[in-house]
Design a protein that fits this description.
heterotrimer, A alpha/beta, B alpha+beta, C alpha+beta, B: alpha+beta, Folate-binding fold, 2 helices, 17% helix, C: alpha+beta, FAD/NAD(P)-binding domain, Arc Repressor Mutant, subunit A, 21% helix
Chain lengths: 416, 103, 984
């Protein structure tokens, strides 16, 4: 049954008795055509698009805990298509276009809010880089505007213009960028997939792959063996651990990225701002909390927790940019595990094992990629060919020398 | 975090800069037949364990030693700290003169 | 100004009245009050509005967990939203306002939401507001955003100071209640270095709020005595008003000390708050427990409070929410509130106890097996409805209801490193689990020892055991006598009914919402939380999570521990951003590095620019110059025509010494270094191991075993780090040592046809600067100005006859003055980073814009430098096919066909005819400048296969700024391509 304002009114008048589960808690069947490992945003989106766009097969999503509990459940909710390189920008533009129609497609209000993202620049070199990027965005069909300092001041008069260590010299504005209610993305895809017959199986941990003659036959799980035609792994944060079960070493390190939220405040920051002279970016949720983040902690970690030096670093940057934040309070911080790749860009690729496909290495950019990653991974799973916008995301690109290094930091994951 | 520097005693991890897996010490031989594959694997592929991890930290705000720290990536517990040059020597690294130096 | 609900006694100083205002109205309270206790004493119960339905709300707790009584304190840049009235210490002139209401607290228009609560159920917004599509950003979201949020920021900069500090101790004790005090005195007497921190302004914890005797005296007196003893110990640091908000790795704790929040304005030069990082060898968590409620219909009215809080207000603050207070409880602790209120002269019409076998209380009617099923009173409770054991409904008139559902140990800090609490059946509560943060133990109510005796004993035991770990023997002290009542409680979470019963008061999450979440399969506790917003309020679920878990457990038929608990994350209570930032804000955000000529440059009126943390002179305006271009053009022209001087100290300098220094550099640079003669400089290119250009610079061989390497300003730190990595980790037995000398030497470029003549006046006569004696790329150690040690390098970034001269930094200021004085006869000009940039573009030198971390030697046109005959960092992986294609980007020069046109850096290059889109991109402009030498804009660009395309015309497109320009590909060496000038 669809969601709508009318339906809500009807249910409100009859005690909300008509709302059913948003997705079924399925039990594993013996066999599926496609088994997607990982019930995060990407895994659920993959299942959704497999079922919707690529038709009719038996599909399961296996989740070791509760769906949407990975990075889709803990991020700073930003969506954007403001990448520089040809390997990336068409993909993120595709993703943004999917976001723009997502709610109507899913019949689920994920609160896609295109409130604009402003990347501040603080030096001539940064302005040159912003111009190159902005032009690349426009040439790829995205939108960009280069603001001078007065343009920035008009949008955000409360930034530090007069007493800054690194003065604001302008900014690159991407109006179609914005935020999304992150949990709702997982739930919306889960509901959409469920309605198309996908089995979403929670509390089902994959413990091994059954591989014979270079071909994957199925997966061992905490709830028994499941036969699979094709297996798609979409477990960012745990990629190395899961793929190790198939004997693979990946160009990935796991790192902690912290994010923070303040106590609820009346509207203060209309859009999304990123500081160009420190580690800080910020938006305000519809509930009123300032949602902000910075850099990764910088060392390999699977501990999902925050550490003080980075908290301080982020908030020093925040206060330097927005001096009026001093009396607001940090309410909560959390740490998520990132698949940090060797060039800062992701992988959507087949593996050397037939029938085993991999989607990961999203660094801290996986959330905005959710629709396109799901779509492109579904495309690859179904057709064995990469989607046009994702063909650069190969696992062997470091062997061939085709890196997609937006920041130019080289194969050191903690610098991306 | 606190790193117990073998020469200087306990130091806040903020004094250090992190590089990554201590396997980065094991730089392949450039003259090897499979040098490209070996360098690719050396530089890009990681065990990335959830558990004990030997890793390189540089005491940038201190004595500029490279250290090999054995740290659990789940609990962050540090069980061993060594000077990287000792680890490098122990794994057979020396002057590089024996690695097919031509010029 | 009567305080009609003020009782006698308490720990407030009733001889010391203070005036304060709330919503513009003046009230009186006493020293020792909180804003909440003072408002209660003045008969004010309505203090706030809820988040979603804007329901009238009063204070419910007496601590930092308060979800309702949040106010805006102070005004202007000091306006502090969401301040808990329960922790705001009263001071004379305190000015507080209610928040999240319009136009007033009593008449809030947004309370209309409450009328529509049927529609605004958990997650309603996921199901609607989708049509028409454009309406979300334009209509729905702005309305929702405006209605949401709690207090407000003014946007003005916070005028207060914040400090950061670091402390070390043997034992950190978190919480100064009976357990914490006992632990502290045990450890203090044993001589350990102890820190005792408590969030309250008065140490003692619950002892200050109870009437229990400890050691034969009132508990508060016993606490004060112990605190006095501790204060006299040199090895104990007492930190009141200090919240230990986070337990971090390896025994590090984050602590927020509120130094000046209890006064109107911090004293001049003093911080408002201090963020402490405490490095502890051991820590004992004595954080006490938080009382929980029982949900029933309309349990959110002002006047419905926690029983322990009502007792605390009466005993500690001599304040009561009303003169008629009923009690609703499932445990014996609720009865204490009745007894204490009666003793204070407050009427207790009834104790409503859900237990059929509840023990008797004196002085009031006990209704056993009874439940509160509803309440009345829009802006404040007037009466409650009670269903008696018999089924009969009775209405009881009361202005407050004290509710006790039992106590939850404050396990939060035990979970900060992902430890999970375990379920204790007797308490019906979670207690600390087994995997505590390293070095932490728990005592007292936080561990589930809820009696005073249990807390005292637990604290003492924990201290003895923690110190034993550290090899310190502490003697067991005789415990003072104290109550040791058993816990008698029948778990009870909510009264069933059809109306709304609140679980999360601030976020308006009711029992119904949890049921709906269950119905829609949001069963996992994380889903429940996210779907209903339960536990996401400013108290982070301290007052709400347990009740909701219990309701969900009921729905699923599972036990509470099977249903789960959410993870507690730092901070324990919210921490101001100001404190977390400390002094690293504004101009102090990062340190500012000044060059040796800085003060001289300031005297010249230079404009400065941030280059990393450095501040460098950007240009030196002269009188009459109105535009920066005038100054820069003059500096370039004058340098090219005569001589210019530039401070280049910021370039990284690394001293490389040892018998194997040359061999080492041979491994670091892509080009050969082993055979560089002494007295010579060579330009060098460093690659990363992945074959991408990392940095470029020069290496000067001052002696067989001594080189000076220079790096770019931006990469000084990373190049040094990587060289140390190579030295220590890759080739540990090479005889070579490195040290960064960037700040040890002041270095100036002296460039232009008259450079030699100028330098001859400075350099001591023993040194011959003639072209033959000291040719291009020569270097040497010399003396200047009559014996001052210096180094001279004949290197050129500008393309002119040029030198770089270095002197020990302490002579840097003298040197720039000496150079300028010597240059006077040549009209020598100082030049800044802009002119430096123009000249290097004119000369086609790559810099940061070109060495952008994605470019190879091939891209930079430096591929011929890369040796194929040796091992070096990057040797192997630079050979990868994808980096060596025929159409690889190649650095070229570009000039506009029409000399008047601009060539913006960041513009992309397209074929003259053909589509303009990413698929047809030919490259991009990296650097651009106006060349006064050529009277034209010029640029450097990476163009596909550019080396073979000299003379070709391309379109420079810049859709971002709506500009398109016709340009021609030329050599990047715009000026003196043969290099005659620099060799002259």
């Amino acid at each position: 049954m669809g969601y709508s304002g009318l339906r809500l009114i009807k249910e409100a008048l009859t005690g909300h008795k008509g709302w059913g589960p948003q997705w079924r808690d399925a039990s594993p069947q013996d066999a599926y055509d496609y088994v997607i490992i990982g019930g995060g945003g990407h895994g659920l989106a993959t299942a959704y698009y497999l079922a919707k766009e690529f038709g009719g097969a038996r599909i399961a999503v296996l989740e070791k805990g509760w769906i949407g509990g990975g990075n889709v459940g803990r991020n700073t909710t930003i969506i954007r298509s403001n990448y520089l390189l040809d390997g990336n920008e068409p993909f993120y533009e595709f993703s943004l276009k999917l976001w723009e129609g997502l709610e109507q497609d899913l019949n689920y209000n994920a609160m896609v809010s295109q409130r604009g993202i402003l990347n501040l620049v603080h030096s001539d070199a940064q302005r040159d880089a912003a111009r190159r990027r902005g032009n690349a965005m426009i040439l790829n069909g995205s939108d960009a505007e280069l603001l001078d300092v007065d343009g920035v001041r008009k949008m955000y008069p409360f930034l530090n213009f007069d007493n800054a260590r690194f003065p604001i010299k302008g900014g690159l504005l991407h109006r179609r960028g914005g935020t999304v209610r992150h949990d709702a993305v997982a739930w919306g895809y889960a509901r959409g997939a469920d309605r198309r017959g996908v089995d979403i199986i929670q509390n089902c941990e994959v413990t091994g792959f059954r591989i014979e003659g270079g071909r994957v036959l199925g997966v061992e799980t905490s709830r028994g063996y499941i036969k699979a035609g094709k297996v798609g792994v979409s477990v960012a944060g745990s990629s190395s651990r899961v793929m190790a079960q198939a004997g693979m070493r990946l160009p990935i390190e796991s790192h902690v990225l912290q994010a923070f939220v303040s106590e609820g405040l009346k509207p203060f920051i209309p859009g999304v701002i990123t500081y160009g002279a420190g580690h800080f970016y910020c938006s305000q949720s519809d509930k009123g909390g300032l949602v902000f983040g910075g850099d990764i902690d910088g060392y390999n970690s699977y501990a999902q927790r925050s550490n003080l030096p980075v908290v301080e670093d982020v908030i020093e940057s925040g206060m330097s940019l927005i001096p009026g934040l001093g009396r607001a309070r940090l309410l909560r911080g959390w740490g998520g595990i990132m698949d940090m790749s060797m060039d800062g860009s992701p992988y959507i690729d087949k593996t050397h094992i037939e029938g085993l496909y991999f989607n990961g290495g999203w660094c801290y950019g996986g959330f905005k990629a959710t629709p396109a990653a799901g779509y492109c991974f579904a495309h690859l799973l179904k057709t064995d060919r990469p989607h046009d916008t994702a063909k650069a995301y190969r696992l062997d690109r470091f062997m061939t020398g085709h890196m997609i290094d937006e920041k130019g930091m080289g194969p050191q994951p903690n610098l991306h | 975090m606190i790193i117990n520097h073998p020469l200087l005693g306990p130091r806040d991890a903020q004094e250090f800069t992190y590089l990554g897996d201590a396997a980065l010490i094991n730089r392949p031989d450039w003259t090897s037949e499979n040098a490209l594959r070996e360098f690719h694997d050396y530089l890009h592929l990681r065990d990335n364990p959830a558990g004990e991890h030997r890793e390189l930290w540089f005491h940038e705000q201190g004595d500029r030693s490279w250290l090999v720290v054995t740290r659990n990536t789940v609990t962050h517990e540090i069980s061993k700290v060594e000077l990287a040059c000792d680890v490098a020597r122990a794994s057979g690294r020396s002057t590089g003169r024996d690695e097919g130096q031509v010029a | 100004m009567t305080q009609r609900n003020r009782l006698t006694g308490g720990l407030v100083d009733q001889s010391n009245p203070l005036n304060f205002s709330f919503d513009g109205k003046i009230y009186q309270g006493y020293v020792g009050d909180t804003l909440a206790s003072a408002l209660l004493a003045n008969g004010v119960r309505l203090m706030g509005r809820s988040f979603k339905y804007h329901r009238p709300r009063g204070v419910v707790t007496a601590g930092s967990e308060e979800p309702n009584a949040l106010v805006e304190l102070r005004s202007g840049g000091r306006q502090e939203p969401n301040t808990r009235a329960t922790t705001a210490e009263l001071y004379g002139g305190l000015d507080a306002n209610s928040q999240n209401r319009w136009p007033s607290l009593k008449h809030d228009m947004m309370a209309i939401n409450d009328r529509f609560s049927n529609f605004l159920t958990a997650g309603f917004y996921y199901k609607t507001f989708m049509w028409p599509k454009a309406f979300w950003e334009k209509i729905y979201e702005p309305i929702i955003r405006k209605a949401a949020g709690l207090g407000s920021l003014t946007g003005a900069a916070d005028p207060d100071l914040y400090d950061k500090g670091f402390l070390h101790c043997d034992l950190l004790i978190v919480g100064a209640g009976p357990a914490g005090l006992m632990a502290a005195v045990t450890a203090g007497r044993a001589g350990a270095q102890v820190i005792l921190a408590d969030e309250d302004f008065r140490m003692g914890g619950r002892l200050n709020s109870e009437t229990h005797q400890v050691g034969g005296m009132p508990g508060a007196d016993w606490a004060a005595r112990v605190v006095a003893e501790l204060a006299a110990m040199g090895n104990v640091r007492l930190m009141a008003r200090s919240t230990v908000f986070g337990a971090y790795d390896h025994g590090v704790y984050g602590v927020l000390e509120r130094v000046a929040d209890h006064i109107a304005i911090p004293p001049a030069g003093k911080p408002r708050q201090i963020l402490w990082r405490i490095y502890s060898k051991r820590a004992i968590l004595c954080a006490g427990a938080t009382e929980r409620s029982i949900a029933f219909e309309n349990n959110d009215r002002p006047g419905v409070m926690m029983a322990g809080a009502v007792r605390a207000y009466a005993n500690r603050w001599a304040a009561t929410p009303d003169q008629n207070i009923a009690i609703f409880t499932n445990n014996d602790d609720g009865h204490r509130t009745a007894a204490d209120l009666i003793a204070k002269g407050v009427n207790v019409p009834a104790v409503i106890d859900i237990r059929p076998d509840a023990p008797k209380v004196e002085g009031t009617e006990l209704l056993t097996g009874a439940q509160v099923i509803g309440s009345k009173g829009r802006l404040g409770l007037t009466d409650v409805s009670v269903r008696l054991a018999s089924g009969e409904i009775r209405r009881i008139s009361c202005g407050a209801l004290a509710v006790s559902g039992g106590w939850n140990p404050n396990v939060h800090l035990t979970c900060h490193q992902r430890g999970r609490p375990t379920w204790n059946e007797g308490l019906a509560a979670f207690v600390p689990g087994n995997s505590l943060p390293m070095g932490m133990s728990v005592a007292g109510a936080a561990l589930g020892d809820l009696s005073t005796h249990g807390a005292l004993k637990g604290g003492a035991d924990a201290a003895v055991s923690a110190l034993a770990d550290l090899g310190i023997t502490a003697s067991r002290l005789v415990l003072p006598e104290a109550e040791d009542a058993p816990i008698r409680l029948t778990p009870f979470w909510h009264v069933s009914g059809t109306g709304r019963a609140w679980l999360d008061l601030q976020n308006d999450v009711t029992v119904k919402d949890v049921k709906l979440a269950h119905q829609e399969n949001f069963v996992s506790v994380e889903h429940l939380k996210r779907y209903t917003t339960l536990g996401m309020a400013t108290d982070q679920g301290k007052t709400s999570n347990m009740g909701a878990l219990a309701v969900m457990a009921e729905m699923t038929g599972k036990s509470i521990p099977e249903t789960g608990t959410t993870i507690f994350r730092p901070p324990y209570t919210p921490v101001s951003m100001g404190a977390l930032a400390g002094r690293s804000v504004g101009k102090e955000f990062h340190p500012t590095r000044l060059t040796p000529s800085h003060h001289w440059a300031v005297e010249q009126g230079a404009e400065f620019v941030e280059v990393g943390n450095w501040l460098r002179a950007q240009w030196f305006p002269r009188k009459g110059e109105t535009h920066w271009r005038e100054s820069v053009d003059r500096e370039v022209t004058q340098t090219r025509n005569s001589v210019g001087i530039c401070d280049v100290t910021t370039l990284g300098k690394i001293d490389v010494q040892g018998a194997d220094a040359a061999e080492f550099l041979n491994k670091i640079y892509a080009n050969a270094f082993a055979k560089l003669p002494v007295g010579k400089v060579r330009y060098g290119l460093m690659l990363r191991e992945d074959g991408i250009a990392a940095d470029d610079g020069t290496a000067a061989r001052l002696a067989e075993d001594h080189f000076v390497v220079t790096t770019t300003t931006a990469n000084a730190v990373t190049v040094y780090r990587n060289m140390e990595f190579a030295r220590q980790c890759l080739w540990p037995d090479l005889d070579v040592q490195l040290i960064s000398t960037t700040e040890a030497w002041a270095q100036y470029a002296v460039a232009g046809p008259n450079a030699r003549k100028l330098l001859q006046k400075i350099v001591d006569a023993d040194f011959d600067l003639a072209n033959d004696a000291f040719p291009f790329m020569a270097c040497g150690e010399i003396t200047v100005c009559g014996g001052t040690r210096a180094r001279l390098f004949r290197i050129s970034f500008s393309g002119e006859l040029a030198y770089e001269i270095a002197v020990p930094t302490r002579y840097g200021d003298a040197m720039i003055r000496a150079l300028m004085a010597a240059g006077e006869e040549f009209d020598a000009v100082p030049y800044g980073t802009e002119a430096l940039g123009v000249m290097r573009i004119e000369k086609g030198h790559a810099a940061g814009n070109e060495l952008n971390g994605t470019t190879t030697a091939l891209n930079l046109g430096l591929d011929r430098m890369v040796s194929g005959k040796k091992d070096f960092i990057g040797a192997v992986l630079s050979k990868r096919d994808g980096m060596n294609t025929d159409d690889a980007l190649c650095l070229v020069g570009i000039r506009p066909v029409d000399a008047k046109d601009r060539v913006p850096a960041g513009g992309h290059l397209m074929a003259i005819s053909g589509p303009v889109d990413a698929a047809h991109d030919q490259g991009y402009v990296t650097s651009a400048a106006y060349s006064p030498t050529l009277n034209s804009a010029i640029g450097l660009a990476f163009v596909k296969g550019g080396g073979e395309r000299m003379g070709e015309r391309l379109r420079l497109v810049n859709p971002l700024e709506g500009i398109g320009t016709l340009v021609e590909i030329v050599s990047a060496h715009f000026v003196d391509p043969e290099g005659e000038k620099l060799r002259g």
